[in-house]
Amino acid sequence: MNILLIGSGGREHAIARKLSMSKKVSKIFCAPGNGGTALENKCENINLISIKELINFAKNNSIDLTIVGPEQLLIEGIVDAFNEEELKIFGPHKEAAKLEGSKSFSKDFMKKYGVKTAKYQVFENAEKALNYVRTEEFPLVIKADGLAAGKGVYICETLEEANNAIKDIMVEDIFNGAGSRIVIEEFLTGFEASILSITDGNVIKSFISAKDHKQILDGDKGPNTGGMGVIAPNPYVTDLHLKDFEENIMNRTLIGIKEENLNFKGIIFFGLMITNKGTYLLEYNVRMGDPETQSVLALMDSDLLELIESSFDNTLNNFKIKWKEGYCCNVVLASSGYPGVFEKGFNINIDDSVKDSIYIAGGILDSNKKLITSGGRVLSVIGTGKYLEDSVKEAYSKIKFINFTKKYFRTDIGKIENNNI
Ligand code: AMP
Ligand code: GLY
Q1: What is the pLDDT of residue 69?
Q2: Is residue 415 part of a domain?
Q3: Cα 335 to chain center, whole Å?
Q4: Which one in 43, 207, 215, 225 has a CA-CA gap of 20 to 30 Å to 194?
C-alpha cells in the first residue's frame, strides 16, 4: 500500500517508522515530514500543505490510505473533503473533530453522556464571566473554547488572575477568535495520565497508558512545553483507575459518538486527571498525542497498518492489540531557551549505534542533506526495558551519542516519585 502521512513532528516520525515495518506498506509519503522522515526507510517527504494539494496528490499517486497526524486539518474538515472524493482517510469527520476543536462542545458532550469530568460553565460574554468568578472558590480553570496552540488554559489562583485571564481571552482576543467563548471549570487535584485509543465508531479499544512531563525544568517546574518526556505505561495508573476510565469515560464516549451519529474512524486521546475521587477526563484529542505516540508505538507489537485497516473493515472488535512487555522511556532533547526564545540551525550528530532509538521532531535536512535543528523540541531518545528503571537508564545512556549545540533535556524523566494524591 501507498500511504500519505500528514504532519511534521516527532509523532509523525514515529508513525512513519512503525508503518515502514509493515510488510504491507510499500511507500510512505510524508507531507511535509521532517529531517527524520526524510531518512526513514520507505519514506519520502513531499512539500504539500493545503487540503486541495493533498487531495490532488492522493489521486495522482495511487495513495491507498491517508493518515492525519495533527489536529488542525481534522478540525478544518480534511476527512470530509477526502471522503467526498472517495479517498480513504483515517480520522474523524469535521463534526466529530469538535471534540478537540471546541472545549464547550466537548464538555457539553461529556455532560450529556455522563463522562466523568470537572464541573463547568460556558460563557460567551465577558461581563457575565467576570461576575461568575467573583462568586466562585479558587483555584479555577479558565479555557479558551477553540484551538490556542496549547496556551489557552489558565489555572487561576486568585480573583485577579481570573479577571486577567478573562480579559486576555475574551476582550483582548489574544487567541484570535478562539476565545469568543470560554469554559470555566473546577480545579482538580491529582496526577495526569494520557490514554490513546482507536475507534471505528462502533467499537473502541484503548492503548497502553502514558505519562507526559509537560514542564521544562526538573521537578515539574517552570513553564509548560509541548512535552519534555514520556513514560509508558504510566506507572501510577492502576487496574482500578483503568476500570474507572473504561466504565465512566471511554465506554460512555463511544455511546455518545453513536448517539450523535458522529462519523469517527480514528484515534481518540483521553487526557485524564486521576484524583482521590476517581478518574476524570480533562480533554479529548482526536489524534495521536505528541510525544506520547513515540513511546506508545515503540511498545506496540501489532502491525499498525493492520490495526488501522481493521477500523475500516469493521474487524476492530476481533483485533487483539499486542504490546511488548515492560516500559518505554522517551526523553526529549530540546534547544536551550525553549519554550521561550532559542537558536536553531545547528548540526545534529547522531551515532549510528543509537539512530534506531531516535525520533526527530524539530530537525530538518539542510541543502547538503545534513540534519540541523529547526525547532524547540529537537528529538526524542527512546529506551525500553522490562522494568521502568531499565528503560530510563537506557534512554539516558544514549544521550551522549547525540550532539547538537545548546542541547537541553530534563534529567528526571520517569524518576518523579510524587504523584500528588
Ligand atoms: P487541557 O488542554 O484541557 O488538557 O488543559 C491543559 C492542562 O491544564 C492539563 O494538562 C492540566 O495540566 C491542566 N488542567 C486542565 N483542566 C484542569 C482542571 N480542571 N484542573 C486542574 N488542571 C487542569
Ligand atoms: N501531548 C498532548 C498532545 O499531543 O496534545
Answers
A1: 97
A2: no
A3: 20
A4: 43
Q: How far is CA 269 from CA 100, 182, 196, in A?
A: 9, 22, 4
pLDDT at residue 125 is higher than 90: yes
Look at residues 258, 291, 318 and tell me which one is the last residue of a structural domain. Answer: 318
Q: Answer yes or no: do 343 and 403 share one domain.
A: yes
Question: Which residues form the domain of 131?
Answer: 125-180
* Residues 205-224: b if buried by 16+ CB within 10 A, e if exposed: bbbbbbbbbebbebebeeee
The string of pLDDT tens digits covering residues 237-276 is 999 999 999 999 999 999 999 999 999 999 999 999 999 9
pLDDT tens for each residue of 309-319 = 999 999 999 99
The count of domains in the chain is 4
Q: What is the DSSP letter of 188?
A: -
Protein residue with its CA nearest to atom 18 in ligand 1: 187
Tell me how far apart the alpha carbons of residues 14 and 177 are, in angstroms, rounded to a whole number: 33
> For residue 361, how far is its CA from the centre of ligand 1 (angstroms)?
24
Q: Ligand 1 pocket: which of 273, 284, 285, 287 to mutate (most atoms <8 Å of CB)?
A: 273
Same domain, 313 and 348: no
Grid cell digits, residue 245: 476510565
The pTM of the full predicted model, rounded to 2 decimals, is 0.96
Q: Of 153, 419, 420, which is best to mutate to test ligand 1, by the most ligand atoms within 8 angstroms of its C-beta?
A: 153
Q: What percent of the chain has pLDDT over 70?
A: 99
